[in-house]
Amino acid sequence: KMAAGSSGGPGAPCRHHAQLGACESRAKYREGWRPRAVKVYTINLESRYLLIQGVPALGVMKELVEQFALYGAIEEYHALDEYPAEQFTEVYLIKFKKLQCARVAKKKMDERSFFGSLLHVCYAPEFETVQETREKLQDRRKYIAKATNQRDCFVLKKVEGPKKTASKNSQHDCPWSTSGSHVASDSDPACFTSSHGVSHNTVYPSGNANQSLLTSQHYDNSCAEISGYFGQNTSLTPSVHPGGHLPPAPLMQHRTVPAYNGIDRFMPRTTHLQERKRKREEGNKFSFIGTSEDNTEVVIGPQLPEIPKVDMDDESLNTSATLIRNKLKEVADSVSTTSVEKPESSSAKPLVKQRRRI
Amino acid sequence: MELGRLEYLQALVTEFQVTDSTGNKRRCSLALSVSSVSSHTRRFSFAEAKEQVLANLANFAYDPSNYEYLRQLQVLDLFLDMLTEDSETLVEFAIGGLCNLCLDKINKEYILEANGVEPIINCLSSSNEETVVSAVTTLMFLTTPQSRAQTTALPVVECMLRFSLSANTRLSNLASIFLQDYCSPPQVEEARNLSKHTAVGIPLPKD
Prior knowledge:
heterodimer; A: 358 residues; alpha+beta; Alpha-Beta Plaits; four-stranded antiparallel β-sheet; two-stranded antiparallel sheet; 6 strands; disordered N terminus; B: 207 residues; Leucine-rich Repeat Variant; globular
């Protein structure tokens, strides 16, 4: 359910929807590869809701949503008929399940051509309900507490509604500048850390991390950061997920923040690409299964079958290669009896090229 | 954080001294090395350059991995200083930066120690929507058992009451959260009674 529009509320053009003129005076060393307006992003500006302007009025809503769904699960979407739109274009609202998905989608889809028209994508926090805003702020709290290893019990009088994901920012796709360069000049200067909040050292949790979370049962005190991990109704009992369970998702344990050593943080570009790919696959996996809960909750209980992983050691992957190899061998050996069909590796195992998932 | 980022940050921030209105020398750490901005197609103003740098820093402040560096470079002081600037844009960016980084415990303590609450409260009466919205959130984030007497002082609560009735959803949402989660019912009641009688302590933003 969407926030009901108050008078002049959601649906009315807001200043923060306006596309600012590109900044032309930026110094060379700070120039991104695209002209960007000067803007500061705070948690108030960001939202799970995205406003998309400039959609050509060709009846392409389905395609639009499919395109955005690449970045994460979408909760709701619809056209905004009252919103002022340029001739022959429409305006849509898309609500993502997670803020970080909205963030990535916005970054990727803004200024993208879509059916011949240039899309303008921006956040639309004015569509949030009070509770959604509240949760957004709480998620931000938890993220900071986790990222800085601080258990800061903030002052809240009561426990709010179902505490959502503890680490809304955890599952970041790393939307680094696509140029991948680590030098400032190539990346978006306003989003140097890849549009805020991304840890480059995304690490899958060790078993210990999960352990310590499991033992904490103080979900009704004011340490929301811990309680957030469990929602309101879990301790060691499995929470009921209509859609079944997922394996404990990579609790994107934000790395501990020690005194900085710049060198430690340097990650070569290829690693980023692989990280992104892996995270994308993880993200897609979850959206296939259709998790409706945050996937950082530690879940105990029978798991739904995962999407079958490709077994890289499975010989069937190499059927064609093996066939060809054997054929070649046959031809080379002609009458030799050593050309034997040996699917399993012989001592001189040919280099098995791993199939890459596309 | 890569080496490049540190250098980049440092390039943004250099120290110089300014004399403020009371004749005191104050450290104001916002300047650009001239060479970095000189090579440009179009003439820019120093004011614009300042805005860009401040915006960059404020956006950096969103990522906790930058906090140590930002503290070293005294960017927190910079943000606080900029709150009293004439330029609406500089104020907007500065309070945005504070909003972004004030949840971190060390930053929070630093800001509170530096008497940052007062200039932030003053931002509530700005005519700039982003400034006000950032200020509301920052006050929430800065509320601790020790600071709440300040952050939820009567004029503030009274202001939030008015904001909660605003047609601006973002503002009303935040104000409602402030009242519900950070103020006690007696506080809200007191503020309600106050607004019935006297002139307000904090003027409404113009927009």
